[in-house]
Amino acid sequence: MRLFLSSYRFGADPAPLLSLVGRPGRVAVIAAAADAWPRTARTSAVVSDVMPLTRLGFTAEEVDLRDYVGDDGQPCAAALRQRLDGFGLVWVRGGNTFVLRAQMARSGADRVIPELLASDSLVYAGYSAGACVMTPTLHGLDSSDDPAEVVATCGVEPRWDGLGMVGFAIVPHYPPAELPGAGNAVPLEDAAAVRRTVDALRLAGIEYRTLTDDQAIVVNGDRTELV
After folding, report:
1. Which of 77, 124, 147, 207 has CB atoms 3.0–4.6 Å from 168's, for a disulfide?
2. What is the pLDDT of residues 171-186, one digit of tens each?
3. C-alpha to C-alpha distance for 30 and 104, rounded to whole angstroms
């Protein structure tokens, strides 16, 4: 299993991601975390991810999980698996983690992606929501992401379980100023919301790891490291 889980895109350096993937090829861009956004904002979000991937040499194509929800509301998992065949990398952007989790369940991605990872058929790269959804729980993330957007966007109730591909929660956008020796750096996200998430995880006794926007967690087989 190969995972690249970051706070923001490539972190400080795309080299660790490239080392997981090898030669850049086709990448499936999943923007389901932005499905609650207005259409123009969502479209711009996809473009903003496609461009840096293209500059690294990847051929990026969006895979919209909404296309794999049947008319009866049932997942079209087989069709999604076929669509992802041939991609060396799946890139899952940030947004609302609860909306992303719901769309993964509705499309069957929460079954298809773990199976492809288990067979080492592709690399999973996700940032912010795309990283958080791979953990055991979304507990505490309601400090920054609104679970109520799930009903309005997806027509289902929010889920609080992640895919469990790593054994700890992830808190992205951790303020660099709170790290030893980081000086007076200004956080890019709401530091108070991040602290509330950390407090909720501590109170619940849930193991977690924080990530600044320069950091990423890389899983390669049985090795997990912070880069």
Report:
1. 207
2. 999 987 654 544 444 4
3. 10
